[in-house]
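agent> step 3/5: call structure_predict on target 'NADH:ubiquinone oxidoreductase subunit NDUFA12' (Ancylobacter koreensis).
agent> reason: downstream docking stage needs a structural representation; sequence fetched in step 2, passing through unchanged.
tool.input:
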Amino acid sequence: MGTRFHTWRYGELVGTDEAGNRYYRTKGGKIDPALGFERRWVIYNGYAEATAIPPGWHAWMHQRSDVPPSQEDYVPREWQKPHRPNPTGTANAYRPPGSTLGAGHRPAVTGDYKAWTPE
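tool.output (status=ok):
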């Protein structure tokens, strides 16, 4: 509720990304005297996950770019892949062979391990 009120009162919509996240900044690009630069924030479409921000918007959010991707005529190159959020902690997470969470079984021990015993 507080973020909505703050956004309504002090923010202006800059753009949205393909995931439906909405990006805001202070009205008129006003510089915050405490920070020395304008405030920028995102309202996520669904679960708030920082890795759901695409690279172009990430650069704008972190003051690496002055022009938001919604105002650029950027066309991705054919070798660039679309953004995917971080799958860690989900069913799509990478689980290498031998992982206790992997679908397969742990590989057999090769015999190159010798247990330590105190003397």
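agent> step 4/5: record observation. The chain has a mean pLDDT of 83.
agent> proceeding.
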